[in-house]
Amino acid sequence: MSMAGNLRRVRDLRGVGGLRKVARLTRGRTRTVDLSHHARSPLGSTVVNCVTYHGGVRQPGGHGLVDAVERVRAAGEGFVWLGLHEPSQEEFKDVAELFGLHPLAVEDAVDAHQRPKVEQYGDFLFAVFKTVCYVEHAELTATSEVVDSGEIMVFVGPDFVITVRHGRHGSLGPVREGLEADPEQLAKGPAAVLHAIADHVVDEYVAVTDAVQDDIDQVETDVFAEDGARTDPGRIYQLKRELLELKRAVLPLARPLEVLATERIRLIAPDIRAYFRDVGDHLARAVEQAAAFDDLLNSILQAHLAQVTVKQNEDMRKITAYAAVIAVPTMVCGIYGMNFDHMPELHWRFGYGLVWVVIVTACLLLYRGFRRAGWL
Predict the structure, then answer these.
(1) 3-state SS assignment for residue 23
(2) What are the Cα distances from residue 270, in Å, to 78, 126, 160, 191, 303?
(3) Predicted pLDDT of residue 63
(4) pLDDT at 228
(5) 337-368 burial, b if ≥16 CB within 10 A, otherwise e?
(6) Is residue 70 helix, strand or coil?
(7) Residue 11: DSSP 8-state
(8) pTM assigned to the model
(9) Is the sign of the CA dihedral 179, 182, 185, 189 positive or negative?
(10) Which 8-state DSSP code applies to residue 301?
(11) Residue closest to 156 by CA, chosen among 200, 90, 99
């Protein structure tokens, strides 16, 4: 029987004896591997880590996934935390069969591009979080990437946590280290891990909104500067596009957090629900900032367009004023260029000089008048 066939039988084996049968079936055909190391993982480089916890304390590695689950269920306490990064359908198949994961949840976890949500399938929870990170840039341009997004899918069962991460960022290493530094919190089980992940994701929301605030402040300063009309409006539109990606991650998470904080879910202990309420408060701040950014960028864009309109009006007034000044010599030269035989002062000795005096005087008077009116 193949390894996949053995794992398929685990789905219906809830007792320790059943897991031992699987271990005996696989013994001699597969060797024990350390899933915490990428190169030695039978699932390939998609495995980030696989760790067992008892009483909030990390246990030594070196066991296969089936052995790890067997030890946890034999002890009647603790859980296994398996971390994956962008697994394929084939790579995730054995894990799904081992833990009896619902096919719909598995499909969502592999395909990604899901909205933030929390769903319950039998005796396990499936949660989706959209992750965001701020993309550093020397100068904001009309093509600058400001916000990069990814996803984290979390399967939470009575004795396991499976995290599936998509994207170039959102590493859960700091979350794991923080939990391991707090054994009392980690001893509360898989629900504590789910809370820590949610808290980490929302903290990133707050950090990204603070960084985006700096970009918006810079654009606002440039728009209201002396030469603000020359500011590239593409920068404002680019911020609005990036803000849309941020809002797609932040806004839909409010409802899932409310479910985790208020509804009675067997896997979420009452004391853990209080922690989710705190995460919801932090999320509310990020939601308010994102909504305020949208209104602020609209105001900045309208102000910029108004400045451009004012600048165009000023340019038109200058053009009109200079055209009026130039019209005087054009008119005089046009009249005396008609070459009639009987024209006043045409053969007068001082006629040429007098015409120049009249032209220059009229032009100076017009120029002075336009300057006083603010047109020049």
Answers:
(1) helix
(2) 19, 19, 19, 11, 50
(3) 63
(4) 67
(5) eeeeeeeeeeeeeeeeeebeeebeebbeebbe
(6) helix
(7) T
(8) 0.73
(9) positive
(10) H
(11) 99
Distance, CA of 328 to CA of 156 (rounded, Å): 86
Helices (H) and strands (E) in the chain, counts: 12, 7
CA distance 131 to 148: 8
Nearest alpha-carbon partner for 15 in 74, 71, 94, 65: 74
pLDDT tens readout for residues 54-75: 988 998 866 678 888 888 888 8
* Residue whose structure tokens are 């990604």: 112
Distance CA 373, CA 369 (A): 6
Parallel, antiparallel or unpaired: strands 47-54 and 117-121? unpaired
d(CA 22, CA 1): 11
Query: For residue 342, which amino acid is it?
Result: H
Task: Provide φ and ψ at 226, rounded to 5°.
Answer: -60, -40
Q: How far apart are the first and last CA of the chain?
A: 92
Q: What share of the chain is helix, strand, coil (3-state, %, to 5)?
A: 60, 15, 25
SS3 285: helix
Residues 185-195: what's their mean pLDDT? Answer: 92
25: region left, alpha or beta (phi > 0 left; psi from -120 to 50 alpha):
alpha
Single out the residue of 40, 2, 50, 42 nearest to residue 22, CA to CA: 2
Domains and CATH numbers, the chain: 312-373 (1.20.58)
Q: Tokens for 340, please give them.
A: 């009639």
For residue 366, which amino acid is it? L
DSSP state letter for 139: S
Q: Which two tokens stand for residue 271?
A: 């004391």
State phi, psi for 41 to the nearest 5 degrees: -90, 135
Taken in order 355, 361, 364, 369, is the CA torsion positive or negative? Answer: negative
Joined together, the tokens standing for residue 294 give: 């949208």
Among 304, 184, 168, 287, residue whose Cα is nearest residue 236: 304
Q: What is the pLDDT of residues 245-271, one digit of tens each?
A: 899 999 999 999 999 998 888 889 888
